[in-house]
Amino acid sequence: MKNLLEYKDLIYELALRDLKIRYRKPFFGFLWMFIMPFSTAIIYKVLFSDFMRITSGEYPFFIHLITAILPWSYFATTVQGSIGCILGSKNIINQISFPKYLIPVSTVFANLINFLPTMIILLGFILAFHIKISPLVIFLPVVIMIHTCLIIGLAFLVSALQVIYRDTEYIVQIMIMALFFLTPGVYVLEEVIARSNPLFIKIYMLNPLVGFTNLYRITSIGGYLNSMPKEANFLNTLIIPAIFSIAMLFIGYFVFSKYEKRFSDYLNI
User: What is the pTM for the complete model shown?
Assistant: First the structure.
């Protein structure tokens, strides 16, 4: 934390550089931070709700989707973007002496800047559909903070491994694709519980992204907490995601610190 505060200006500049590079050439520029996740939600809504007739319980399917798609997009985009952040910063690393872990942190920070405005728009959509905003919305920043800890830990992990093992990006892409379908975004959690055996459900609920999806819905949709199935209890909705996030933050930092000493040998290959 001391280093983060000491190098806060550098983190800001690296994050700003990332955002400028990302949105410099597209015609719509920064508007793409809103267009991409919401257009994805619309496509899924048409495919799964209008064509496949998948239901979303007592809430509109679009609200069911965006409360999952927006956090998922933040998670997936940041982790995938972190994979090559060390390799892509080779020139900066060779020219300036600074803690290398600031690079993945700045990548996460840039995506967090993207993510926060979409959550405000999300609350606006909830009101537009005549749904009350949850009084637990005051805890939404806490959920975002815990979620970000998980993402930073994974960013440390994948960015370091990619420098040494160049197959990392392909493995991560496969895992992210699998995790998307193991998270109740386009389908309802109750349907999974109704169609699966108890052992699978216990394993499924250990997925911290299931807990995070529930947390985002609990802290944004009014009454959602009371409509959750009993299988989504306090343990797997809050405790497991929080513990997993903190553990991943330390594990990711440990792995990054271990491989950082070998970066110079691989960056110049």
Answer: 0.88
